[in-house]
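note to self — DONT lose this again. spent like an hour looking for the file last time. sequence + predicted structure for the chain T wanted, 187 res
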Amino acid sequence: MNTLDQYAAIIGIDWADRKHDLCLQVTGSDELEYSVLPHQAQAIDDWANELHQRFADGSIAICIESRKVPLIHALLKYPFLVLYPVNPQTLARYQRALKPSRAKDDPSDAQLLLDLVKRHPEQFHPWEPERPEVRVLASLVEQRRTLVADKVRYTNRLTAALKNYYPQVLEWFDDKDTRVFCNFVER
C-alpha cells in the first residue's frame, strides 16, 4: 500500500501561468500553510532551496494537477521533491463532490489536491518522467494529431460549403484533401 508518511511534508500546488497557489502540510501536523509562488525561474529556485533547508531530513511530496504543466519540468531538477500528478478530471470531480456550488478559488484547489492525494494515496504514484527522447517523440505525435484534426475540420467545412454552393464537385472527387481538388475549387 502506498503511504505518504515517508515524506517530511506534502504540498498541493494549483498552478497557473503567472503564479502558483500552494498548500503545505508538515507530516504529523494538522496545520495547513498557504502561500503564493510567482512563476519565475528564480522564485521557483529560491522556494525549492528554502524547502530543502527547512526539511533537510527528508523528501517532500508535491501534488500537482496534470503532467503537462511547465512547473513540473521546472521541479524535476530537485531530487528531494517527489511529484504526484493528478488528472485534472479527477480533481474536478472531487471538487464537485465536495463543493456542489462549483465555486472555484486557487488556494482551496491547492488544499483539495493535497487532501485528495492524502486520502487516497493508493490511487496516486510518484511520477517517473520519460527520457528526453520519448518526450520529444510524444510532442511530435501530439503535433501530428493536431494537424490531422485540423485537416479533417477544414475538409469538413469545405464540404459543407460546397454542398450549399456547388454540390456537383463533391461527386466528381473522392478525396477532398488533395492538391488537384483544391486547385479545381480555386479555379
